[in-house]
Each structure stands twice: as C-alpha cells, then as structure tokens.
Amino acid sequence: MTTVVTEPRTCSIARTLDLVGEKWALLAVREVFLGNHRFDEMVRRIGAPRDTLTARLRTLVAAGIFERRQYSEHPARFEYHLTDAGRDLYPVIMSLMHWGDQYLAGEDGPPRVFEHHCGHRLETQLVCRACGEPLRHGDSKPLAARDENGRTGERW
After folding, report:
1. What is the residue-level pLDDT of the chain in tens, covering all 156 positions?
2. Is residue 58 part of a domain?
3. Helix (H, G, I), strand (E, B), or coil: what is residue 24?
4. Pair (78, 95) in one structural domain
5. Contacts of 69 (CB under 8 A, 6+ apart)
C-alpha cells in the first residue's frame, strides 16, 4: 500500500510568499526601495486600492519587513522604511525585474535600468558564494535538514 502525503512541504519559499507573494506587497517593497516612503505616494505609483495597500503595509510591518516612522502629528501620518529583513529583499526584487526585462520588456526595452556604484549597468546574477559560478538549474541539490529533535529528513 502506498502512503499519500497530505501535509504541505515545509518550505522557506512558501513561508516567504505568505508575506510578500502578493502583487501589492512586492510593489510596496519596490516603491520603498525607490525612495517612496509615504502611503499616498505608494498608492499613486502602484495603483493599488487604498484599503488593499493598507492591509499589505500592515502585514509587512507585522512581519518585520517595514517599520513605520511618524512624520506628522496632526494629522498622524507615517512613512514606511525597510528593516534589515526588508533590505535583504533587494536581490529578490532586482531578480524579478531582470526576469521581466528579459522576457516581458518588448521592443522598447526595459522601462528602467540601474547603474551599479562601479559605473556599469546593473544586471543581476546569482552566484555561488564559495566558487563564484553562476547559479543554474541542475547545478544544485537540496540537502536533508535537521528538525527540532535532530532528525534528518526532506524539508524542501
């Protein structure tokens, strides 16, 4: 008899998508990276309904990706700033942009390009920290992880 696994796989990708996997959440992160910290600026640049963006910002603050900083008392108004966890999403945002530029940009090319501080056009590429080789499908494999009891097993 074959056992059917009915429990979802424990996965950091799924956990991350629970927080930032919705369109408006990622676009809010993009806007803060681009220097737009205020709610009204984000609504205007993203095009999200106000109530939807409010909910996403609450989630991002609760998850420790953004922090709110008050900039006006009367009326109370806040800006959103990246935490360390939020800043660590930069390679993710840039990788998504790179993919979109490559496969969705069309004849006009990418809508926005970035320059690295070295003076060259920024093109994202994930590399192995140890050997420096580019990351390609098929060049890596998942390893068994240990659970809280020290047992090894599939975790991803």
Report:
1. 666 666 777 788 989 999 899 999 999 999 999 999 999 999 999 999 999 999 999 999 999 999 999 999 999 999 999 999 999 999 999 999 999 999 999 898 898 999 999 999 998 889 999 999 999 999 998 887 766 666 666 554
2. yes
3. helix
4. no
5. 78, 79, 80, 81
Q: How many C-alpha atoms does 92 have within 13 Å on its Cβ side?
A: 14
**CA distances (Å), 136 to each of 31, 55, 68, 127, 154, in order?**
29, 36, 38, 9, 22
Cα separation, 38 vs 40, in Å, equals: 6
- Report the C-alpha dihedral over residues 151, 156, 63, 88, rounded to 10 degrees: 110
> Is 31 in contact with 41 (CB distance < 8 Å)?
yes
Residue 55 burial (10 A CB sphere; 0-12, 13-18, 19+): middle
pTM: 0.82
Q: Rounded to 5 degrees, what are φ and ψ at 43?
A: -55, -45
User: Is residue 134 assigned to a domain?
Assistant: yes
Enter the tokens of residue 57.
Answer: 């910002």
115 shares a domain with 77: no
Domain assignment of residue 135, given as a range: 90-139
The count of other CB atoms within 10 Å of the CB of residue 38 is 16
Q: How many domains does the chain have?
A: 2
